[in-house]
Amino acid sequence: MTSKFYLALLALLLMLPLSAQKLSRTEKKIISTIEKNNEEAIDFLEKVVNINSGTLNLDGVKEVGMVFKDAFNDIGFETKWIEMPEEMNRSGHLFAETSGTKGKKLLLIGHLDTVFEEDSPFQKFTMVNDSIAHAPGGNDMKGGNVIVLYALRALQEQGLLNDAQIIVAYTGDEESTGKPLSVSRKDLIDAAKRSDIALGFETSTGFNYATVARRGSSGWAVEVEGKRAHSSGIFNESNGAGAIFEMSRILHEFYTDVKGEELLTFNPGVLLGGTFVNFDEITSKGDAYGKTNVVAQKAMVKGGLRFISEEQKERARAKMREIVANNLPQTSASITFTDSYPAMQPTEGNLALLKTLNEVSLDLKQGEVLAYDPGKRGAADVSFIAEYVDGLDGLGTMGSNAHTPQETVNLNTIEALTKRTAILIYRLINTK
Question: Cβ of 219: how many Cβ atoms within 10 Å?
Fold first, then answer.
């Protein structure tokens, strides 16, 4: 973790009061129930992993959603499937809710889709040894969804959800968010506005860490026009520098003049230049044509920007616009930006939640929980609601190689993580 960020978090954390406590008799009953149900939870995970739910497999995403829908119905939640408009080419979202007025109002966030589409060779749950399974989407994040379900089931079996308001939101398009965001994330934001606390169950980074901050993400694209001419005349007053030299200047100045702020990164992901350039936005593939004796007429680049605050994002964008406007002779350039995920900042409310989670973990003898470095995490659904509600993320399963055909989930950790989740929820819904 970067030193400045760590020290700022530590200073805030030390200002918060600590109130350690032992497990109550009720909490010990919750733990016993989770132990009793753990084998069933792992079987449930295998079942939903074996249903392909790549983001663009709309029927598969819904099928997984219906399996979870039935399970939440069985523990007394009111459930609904929210369809997305057909033109968005995205499946819907599953919401499950229990209504009440007791304690903190909770929003628990997961997602049903995975990065593995129907044509992926990686489709089935297979055991590697007695504790590790290869599982497409098992770690990111069907395992987290199962932890939520079985934590709530343990509380329900002990009669502890009466008069609690808990909303479970499982989106169907987290891995490739449907556009416009005003439609695809409307229901999640509405739920946050009715809640006090949000808990996200994306992949865990270990028992000793939780996520109090995530960087936002934004897209950017630069297009450059040069004067097409014979290369023997490049650099003269009439022909100028050409599109590729101008694009090279822009990217070099991005690197030297925009780079440097803590937790700010930007990456040019695809670059094309020549006499003619073609790029397909849907497939993110393109081609270019040019000759060594012709001054390049076109160049384009597409990239991503990561930031920890809206202010940081706007500072970076302003510098990038300034650089793009300072063109080499006989060239012109433009830059555009597209918003995707906002930033989740490390607020005092998030740190207070971390402290509560830390107390739960210590009481369960699972070790101290610290804030994870946001520079090492990608964006997630919790970011969309961070401005409305205090939150934590990274409370899901443990595993390795997410988003790859080597993705694994550590089955031996599910019981302990479910216990942690259940006790955290129990304490929050009993806190005014």
Answer: 14
